Amino acid sequence: MLFLSFFIYFQAFRYKRNGSHRRLQYVSCWKVRFQSVLILLMLTETFIRHGIVFGTQNVTVVGLINLFVRAAVLLGCLCLLFLEQRLFWNSQATDTIQLVSWSCFVINEILCIVSWNSEEWWFINSSSSDQVQLGFWISRLCISLLLLSSKFFNQKIKRKKPENFESGSNEKYGHGKLSTWHDFWKKIRFLFPFMWPTKDVVLQIKLVLCVALLIVGRVINPYVPIYYKTIINTLTKEPSWQMVCKQAAIYIAIKCLQGSGISGGILHGLRLFFSIKVEQYTTRTVQVKLFKHLQSLSLQWHLNRKTGEVMESMQRGTASITTLLYTFLFQMLPSLCDIIIAIVYFTSAFDVWFGMLISAWIILYLVATVWIIEWKTKFQRAQNLKDNRAKHVAYDALLNFETVKCYNTEEYETLKFRDAIVDYQNSQYWTSATLVLLNMVQMVIVHAGLLGGTLLCGKYVLDGKLQIADFILFETYMAQLYHPLGTLGHYYRLIQNSFIDLENMLDLFNEKIGIVDEPDAISLSGEADLLEFKDVCFNYSPQKPVLKNVSFKMKSGQTFALVGASGCGKSTITRLLLRFFNATSGTIKMNGINIQKLLQSSIRNCVGLVPQDCVLFNDSIMSNITYGMKVTEEQINYAAVLAGIHHQVLGMPDQYATDVGERGLNLSGGERQRLAIARTILKNPSVVLLDEPTSALDNKAASEIRKTISQLNKGRASLIVTHRLAMAVDADCILVLENGEIVERGRHEDLICANGVYARMWRQQLDDVLADSNLMKLDLCANETVGSKKTL
Ligand SMILES: Nc1ncnc2c1ncn2[C@@H]1O[C@H](COP(=O)(O)OP(=O)(O)O)[C@@H](O)[C@H]1O
Ligand SMILES: [Mg+2]
């Protein structure tokens, strides 16, 4: 009770600190009033009863402590009741505390029945004071039973989410208040296919063998204590060497098969051996399926994702599936079977009291375990999210290490990471603390049960109902049972944690595939000869339109240039063409077919993109150029020569086998861009999209690349997105984009004559170039003057 009052006040204190006002009003008023009245009645009874006792007998320390603790618990519960109704916070923990309190009150009163036969029992003497005491007892029992049942009833009340509900740190996944067993069957249905190796008969046989070994293990389990008892009986009653030899051999053989709690026996070993491949199958299937799913998600999802968090969810989720399936099947289920077999055995071989005792013991153990673990869930969830966050901070800093170094922010990043770790450890503290509490409660219950069973068995032996050998059997069996019971809590915890880890991964699986092919989508046959944008409008978010009524038509062999200020929507046009996004309105056609009616893979097969920001895989130059294509060495050399990178590569230490480093950062921006061009040349697409292909190059390199590009563009439809107008001069048509609208179109000369936006941009760039060349001339003059002075 003292412990309980501590928990109650602690919870009340946390309620005050963390609760938010009037967020959740799920407990209807009359129930709170009813419970409050009952608590007040109980409080009054406590004071009156102690008043009478202290008035008629001496005031004892025990009596005072009893009065104080009961009053403290009752007042604490009253306080929690009101807090729970007025504030929205962790009502699950409050529920549990109240439930435990009322259960303790009921058990406390029921324990009085133990002295039913005693001379001191109120009924027996029947004096007036005893009758008053009996009346008090009955009223206490009734009130505590009412309180307990009202709590149970309360649990079933549906919890409504208030309209403006904003969850805390779990907002992303929204599992904050839900039980881990929420959507249990859905999760199981999801898991099951990963377990049964549909296409592999050998694996299926192995799985069946594992299950068979488990069943055999359960059957032989009770025979260990039984044979132990038989040996003792043989030794004590009619000792015969032959019999002892035979029984000992059987006993040791069974023991060898069964193994002890820590080191598994032969059956366990065989089961582990057969399950290796099956478990590998499960892990592999989950990982591959998830990876495939992530690959199919939209570009927008990938642009917004946090790599560290995704990797962490993936890793934990995969591990959780194996734990869930195999812990449940190979650990928890056998432990449960062992317990049930023990109950049945003791009920039939000893008597029903033993069966009841073990059942009560196990139920108490399980209920306490489940309660505490359910309470622990939210700490575990918060811990996972904080863990993901810490990983994300670390990944981000490592990926952007160049920026970190440039800005001297190593200390800042370290502190950010440290804060994330501290945050994570704060959550972990609560998870670990609840775990310690759980272990202590489990220990107390297990040993209380063992004590009860030993005492009962000892009494039966003394009364002559059982023999000494039975006592030994009981103790051996209980010791054998102690292990599965102890591990049951552990497995429950494991399974529960795995369910939490699984939730994050399920969220990834539930992530909608952004753009899906229509069921009747067709493949683009042949080359894409005609490309058409018709009144295309697009926005990433409804508040900000990016493209407005963009229309143009491009044929094979034509080169179009798309020019405009930064952020006006040029790259967006290339993304729409590749169908990374669907146009909000208007149509995009290839060979006269709306691209929404085409298979995405067939569109991307015939379109080659040289992106603005060429990020490479951390692999060799060779594999980055050939990326996923089967090509000959000659073809690679040809593409590299055309892209103007061949000689540079030959000058590198490992030539084509040189590693490009993380995201290709060992290469210069220009080299990366040339590499991307070489890759596109190898792909040989019928439509080429070049998004700022010379953005990372100097003027000389840019003019070289321009020649390369004009080679690349021959016989294809190509769209060059550029802010460098020199690239657009030779284009068949220049599209000038301003604020998402095409404001001018035509050949270079026509647009210059029109003296519009393009001409202004052209003059501006010309001025910049002239200014640059003047600067260079000045620089040269200065150098010459210095040189001549030196020679003088
Ligand atoms: N994935 C995205 N989500 C939301 N807005 C975006 C996204 N990509 C680009 N934008 C916005 O759309 C506008 C056009 O971008 P973009 O087409 O990349 O411009 P640019 O003409 O420089 O290539 C910009 O204002 C940019 O901020
Ligand atoms: Mg761009």
In brief, what are we looking at here?
With 792 residues, the protein is α/β, with parallel strands linked by helices. Helices cover 66% and strands 9% of the residues. The chain starts with a helix and ends with a helix.
End-to-end distance: 104 Å
- Approximately what portion of the residues adopt beta-strand conformation? 5-15%
* CA-based gyration radius: 39 Å
Structural class: alpha/beta
Instruction: Indicate the low-confidence ranges by residue numbers.
Output: 23-27, 155-174, 785-792
Number of domains: 4
Instruction: Spell out the CATH superfamily of the largest domain.
Output: ABC transporter type 1, transmembrane domain
Bound molecules: adenosine-5'-diphosphate, magnesium ion
